[in-house]
Amino acid sequence: VGTMDVTLVGGAQREAGGLILDGKSGFTRTKPLTKPLAEKTLEAWVRVADLKQRGGGVISVQSTNGNIFDAIVYGEREAQRWMAGSERFRRYQPFGAPDEMESKDLVHVAITFAADGTITGYRNGLPYGTAYKKRLQKYAAETSELVFGLRHGTAAGGNRMFKGTIVRARLYDRALTVAEIEASAES
Question: Whole-structure pTM over 0.90, yes or no?
Answer without folding.
Answer: yes
